[in-house]
Structures are given as structure tokens and as C-alpha cells.
Amino acid sequence: CRQLFRSPSMPSSVIRPILKRIDRPQDRDTPVKTKRRRSVAGTPSEEAAAEPVAWLLRSRSFSHEEIENLLANDHQELIGDFSKAYLLQTVEGKHQDLKYISPEMMVAVLTGQFSSLIESCVIVDCRYPYEYEGGHIKGAVNLPMEQDVEEFLLKKPIVPFDASKRVIVIFHCEFSSERGPRMCRFVREKDRACNEYPHLHYPELYVLKGGYREFFPQYQTHCEPQDYRPMHHEDFKEDLRKFRLKSR
């Protein structure tokens, strides 16, 4: 499985670059200023206070130039059919053979920041129906079973009208720990089996890191209903037992 999503032409140690950081001012840490700060600071805690603080930005817009830089970088890994680089910036996740995106990147897709390059984005919610009904990402389709996702995606594959644009698929479950990654692998394996290598119906697959559990608290306005029902909810123990039996 580790080689499932990795281009054979790329070494496994290559790490995809992230967006360019904001350049620091040239005169922030000159030797003179560094020496002066150390001589003035009386205690280690004062020195620590002088260090710059990094702030986390939950949502931002990606400029056209930033998107072009992402696509133009030669060190990016290629998508499943090796035709082009992955479009979305990825982050490290539990399973090294899969491509993870952050909740922030998901929102960038949902708000149309990549609309000039993506024709269709299919969000596959792999949770059980009672979880999905209790709250899900707007536009997501609930496909908890393998036969469901095979019927929806592979029986009649989604083909872009504009050949220059992409169809991407993003999988998730509650934590994107087991069900989402497993379904992502299933689609890739079935897709490989029904196409002549290296062609694929869906060469660009992602997993939402942290799943719905991490997405919902940050971006409730992108969920409907705006609520979160966990898998181990007290009122749905029988539903959980039933769906676990079906999925075996």
C-alpha cells in the first residue's frame, strides 16, 4: 500500500513544499541586535519572551500566483496517472501512502478558490448514516459501504467537460483514521483494476485530516445541520452494531 499513491519516479524521502512563508525583515536578527538582546535580557524567561510568536491563521485566500507556484514546483509528487502534480497542498497524516489535506484547505476548495482548476470536487463522507444525518459538510455524499462508493463513483465515472480541469475526490470519516482511508484505498484499487495502467478515472484522491471531528469546531458554517453526532452516541448503539455487521 505504501507505493499506492507515490510516483515511482520520485524518491520516497521527497517532501512536498509548502506555500512560501512571509520573508522576515532583513534587520531582525543581525549579529549586533542579537548580542544586544542577550546582554539586556536578565533571565531565560525574558529571552524567551523576545522570540517571535507564530500565529495560526485558520482561513485565508490563495492568490493566483500562489496556486501557480504550487503547480510549477518540480519537486511535487505526481497524481495517480502521473500526468500532473497534486493541486492541493498536503499535510502529514497517519497513513504515509495517502495524501491528506487540512480543514483550511478543504474550506479553500469549498469557497471556490480553485474553481478555475477544479471542475468537480466529490466529498465522500464514509461515516454511518446516523452520523451523517446529525451533521455533515455541505455538499458531501454519504457512502459508508464499499458497494455504495463503487456504485456512485465507478459504475458511471465522473468525467470533466473541460479536459483542462480536474475531478478530485476527498474522503473523510469521524477522525479520518480508519474508515475514510480504507475507502480511499478501495477506490484506487478498483480504479486500477478497471483501467489500463497508469490511466485512472480518479487520479487525484485526498483524505481530510482529522475528519469531521476536527473540521466541525472550526467551520460550523460549512456544515449542515450545524451539529456533530459521534459514532459512539448513546442513542444509536443499535445502529452502530447493525452497520458494523454489514461492513464486515
Automatic annotation (TrEMBL):
Q: Which reaction does it catalyse?
A: O-phospho-L-tyrosyl-[protein] + H2O = L-tyrosyl-[protein] + phosphate
Q: Where is this region: Disordered?
A: 25-46
Which SUPFAM superfamilies does the UniProt record give?
Rhodanese/Cell cycle control phosphatase
CDD domains named among the record's database cross-references: Cdc25 (cd01530)
Any single GO molecular-function term of the entry would be: protein tyrosine phosphatase activity
| Keywords, comma-separated and alphabetical | Cell cycle, Cell division, Cytoplasm, Cytoskeleton, Hydrolase, Mitosis, Phosphoprotein, Protein phosphatase
InterPro entries for this protein: MPI_Phosphatase, Rhodanese-like_dom, Rhodanese-like_dom_sf
Q: What is its main location?
A: cytoplasm
Key word Phosphoprotein present in the record? yes
Enzyme Commission number(s) from the entry: 3.1.3.48
Domain named Rhodanese: residues: 117-224
Looking at the UniProt record for this protein, which Gene Ontology cellular component terms does it annotate, in alphabetical order?
A: centrosome; cytoplasm; nucleus; spindle pole
Location in the cell reads:
Cytoplasm, Cytoskeleton, Microtubule organizing center, Centrosome; Cytoplasm, Cytoskeleton, Spindle pole
Q: Name one GO biological process term.
A: cell division
* Broad class of enzyme this protein falls into: hydrolase
Oligomeric and partner information: Interacts with MAPK14 and 14-3-3 proteins.
The UniProt family comment states: Belongs to the MPI phosphatase family.
Function of the molecule: Tyrosine protein phosphatase which functions as a dosage-dependent inducer of mitotic progression. Directly dephosphorylates CDK1 and stimulates its kinase activity. Required for G2/M phases of the cell cycle progression and abscission during cytokinesis in a ECT2-dependent manner. The three isoforms seem to have a different level of activity.
Q: What is this protein called?
A: M-phase inducer phosphatase
